[in-house]
Amino acid sequence: MLLRKKKPAELPSLEETAEDFTITDGEKYVDEIFESDMKISRSFVHPHLDEEEYEENYARAIKELLATGEHKFFVAIDGYNRYLGHVWVCLRTDTVDFVPVAYIFDIETLFPGRGIGSVLLERAEGWAREKGARKVSLRVELDNPALEWYKRRSYHERAIVLEKEL
Amino acid sequence: MLLRKKKPAELPSLEETAEDFTITDGEKYVDEIFESDMKISRSFVHPHLDEEEYEENYARAIKELLATGEHKFFVAIDGYNRYLGHVWVCLRTDTVDFVPVAYIFDIETLFPGRGIGSVLLERAEGWAREKGARKVSLRVELDNPALEWYKRRSYHERAIVLEKEL
After folding, report:
1. N or C end of chain B, less CB within 10 A?
2. Which chain B positions have a beta carbon within 8 Å of A44's beta carbon?
3. Dihedral of CA B152/B154/B159/B163: which sign?
4. A50, part of any domain
5. Contact A99 B61 (CB under 8 A)
């Protein structure tokens, strides 16, 4: 006689549980953070890159970013400790104002429009303030609608990133 | 009897000799480069900083920039090997396009309007191309008239740097 294997209790979907999120330290979630970011960042890439080249260069870029400054991650999680979003903030010396600055390298949520991003941003700003940062700085692509989202949260334009293909 | 000390031959002014400039490797000139840049960069600083704080933070910011990537300096010099201007370029992995990118961290000349900056920029671009960079990227402050200068040299806007004071 075959014993039926007990089916694990099914968890409610992330979509449902995301309503009740909390913010916590993100260091234990870095693998999930970069896995999620690598997928999302793909859509902002302009030049043609095959998958292998993209993954190699993605890993190299992250390593270069991590090489300097003090880094901090926060994640939004649901009641089952499942990843819902993150913010990555880095404390350095600003190269224009020459004060301690917190660069927001990345802020993402699986479910936009539910306030997760706002709370993550506030948490990153709070951490930066405690660490002595005088300002927060970040880069937004021209084709990214997040520009208006930041402006509603008191961010103002300071500089332009210019490029030329070689 | 007192011997008259021979007066050293006086060199023509930089203003004159700058007409006949050449470009060369800048590594031997880094002290002069940063001395000049520290003065010029002061005018772009927004927050109040006393002199000591500025100099400390300037040194820290430069150290942080030098910690990652492959760096190259070129200088413009006159016929007496005197400094007239420089460009600082750094090869990294782009954090948005994930291709090798050359960041122009700094380009300055003592005598604007004589073509020194253009030739320095071309030299930096040439170096970057040889090194395999797919693009050149740089940041221009909103209140810096250099924005138009770059646009005339085929640079286009890619992103906005946003800030918020803490």
Report:
1. N
2. 96
3. negative
4. yes
5. no
Contacts of B92 in chain A (CB under 8 A): 61, 64
How would you classify residue B154: left for phi > 0, otherwise alpha for psi between -120 and 50, otherwise beta? left
The model's pTM: 0.90
| Domain CATH for A133 | 3.40.630.30
**Per-residue pLDDT tens over the stretch B21-39:** 999 999 999 999 999 999 9
- Answer yes or no: do B161 and A159 touch at CB < 8 A: yes
Residues B65, A97: C-beta atoms closer than 8 Å: no
Selecting from B65, B134, B153 the residue whose C-beta is nearest the C-beta of A166 gives: B134
Number of domains in chain B: 1
SS3 assignment for chain A: CCCCCCCCCCCCCHHHHHHHCEEEECHHHHHHHHHHHHHHHHHHCCCCCCHHHHHHHHHHHHHHHHCCCEEEEEEEECCCCCEEEEEEEEEEECCCCCCEEEEEEEEEECCCCCCHHHHHHHHHHHHHHHCCCCEEEEEEECCCCHHHHHHCCCCEEEEEEEEEEC
Q: Report how many Cβ contacts below 8 Å link chain A to chain B.
A: 184
Residue B83 in any domain: the answer is yes
> Is the ipTM here above 0.95?
no
Measured between beta carbons, the chain A residues lying within 8 angstroms of B156 are 162-164
